[in-house]
């Protein structure tokens, strides 16, 4: 299984719009370090059987897919319905045209319901073969139950994202937890035995809706994955600072990063 980090930034990206010169607000991040330039959080999984699985469709999706040469996949998993994770949904039309059919959209019934309210046209019968608009087939998922996506067993689990609930994703020894500030006990159990965990770490100090550095260190001690990769990072999280200060077994993601893991078992 190959994991491509399409984006690892927060809802405003890094840099955020603005700045005295109009070229962005960088906060504590060094603007001369390319790995501090972060688009909105999303990853892509390419499984050993060829299946491609996108997680979230943020507003930077077109540039992200083009930048990493990704043009075919049949599945997308939605973690929640915030704009920085769904606003690029219309860009999926180009993928529909490549694969010649609708894309399967997985998520909780609540998340898919909200997407259907806001982007109802995307879930109408598709316009094969021309795809005048993006076309998705809703595939509701029950949390903490195994679901077959692309021929592999995935488990989606509940996360507290402040005032809303988000969805964490596990496949084999890999898990992805964007937009999370607290984990229910049942979800902690879903994370036992991990090798690699990509997890939200928006800033160094406490935040009401996102994990911060000390919170991730608490989870590290509790869950004990072999590797933690930080994502959904804001302008407080400078690449150079993290290189010198993160403990062993913890590292920062960067847009364009990729890594491979043993392929998980196929779904039954």
Which terms summarize this structure?
268 residues, alpha/beta, seven-stranded mixed beta sheet
Give a structural overview:
It holds the Pfam family Lactamase_B_2. It is built from 7 helices and 14 strands. It is an alpha/beta fold and 268 residues long. It has one domain: Metallo-beta-lactamase, Chain A (4-Layer Sandwich), CATH 3.60.15. The strands form 2 sheets. It has a 7-stranded mixed beta sheet. Strands 7-8-9-10-11-12-13 form a 7-stranded mixed beta sheet. β5, α4 and β6 form a beta-alpha-beta unit. It is globular and about 50 Å long. 44% of the residues are buried.
Give the terminus-to-terminus CA distance: 18 Å
Strand order of the largest sheet: 6-5-4-3-2-1-14
Can you say what the CATH homologous superfamily is?
Ribonuclease Z/Hydroxyacylglutathione hydrolase-like
Helix content: 10-25%
The run of helices and strands is: EEEHEHHEHEEEEEHEHEHEE
Number of strands: 14
**Rg from Cα:** 18 Å
Topology, please?
Blueprint: E1 2-7, E2 42-46, E3 52-55, H1 61-67, E4 75-77, H2 83-86, H3 92-99, E5 103-107, H4 109-118, E6 136-140, E7 146-149, E8 152-161, E9 164-171, E10 174-177, H5 185-190, E11 196-200, H6 213-223, E12 227-231, H7 239-245, E13 250-252, E14 258-260
Parallel strand pairs: 3-4, 4-5, 5-6, 10-11, 11-12, 12-13
Antiparallel strand pairs: 1-2, 1-14, 2-3, 7-8, 8-9, 9-10
């Amino acid at each position: 299984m190959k994991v491509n980090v399409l984006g690892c930034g927060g809802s405003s990206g890094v840099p955020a719009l603005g700045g005295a010169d109009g070229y962005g607000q960088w906060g504590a991040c060094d603007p001369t370090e390319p790995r501090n330039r972060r688009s909105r959080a999303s990853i892509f999984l390419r499984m050993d059987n060829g299946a491609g699985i996108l997680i979230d469709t943020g507003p930077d999706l077109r540039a992200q897919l083009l930048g990493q040469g990704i043009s075919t996949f049949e599945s997308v998993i939605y973690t929640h319905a915030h704009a920085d994770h769904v606003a690029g949904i219309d860009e999926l039309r180009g993928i529909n045209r490549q694969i010649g059919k609708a894309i399967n959209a997985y998520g909780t019934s609540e998340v898919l319901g909200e997407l259907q309210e806001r982007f109802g046209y995307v879930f109408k019968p598709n316009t094969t073969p021309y795809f005048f608009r993006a076309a998705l087939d809703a595939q509701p998922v029950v949390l903490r139950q195994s679901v077959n996506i692309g021929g592999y067993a995935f488990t989606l689990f509940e996360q507290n994202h402040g005032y809303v609930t988000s969805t964490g994703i596990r496949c084999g020894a890999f898990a992805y937890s964007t937009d999370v500030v607290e984990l229910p006990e049942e979800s902690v159990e879903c994370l036992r035995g991990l090798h690699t965990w990509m997890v939200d770490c928006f800033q160094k100090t406490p935040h009401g809706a996102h994990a911060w550095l000390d919170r991730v260190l608490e989870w590290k001690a509790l869950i004990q994955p072999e590797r933690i990769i930080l994502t959904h990072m804001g302008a407080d999280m400078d690449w150079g600072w993290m290189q010198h200060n993160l403990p062993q077994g913890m590292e920062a993601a960067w847009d364009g990063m990729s890594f491979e893991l043993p392929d998980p078992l196929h779904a039954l």
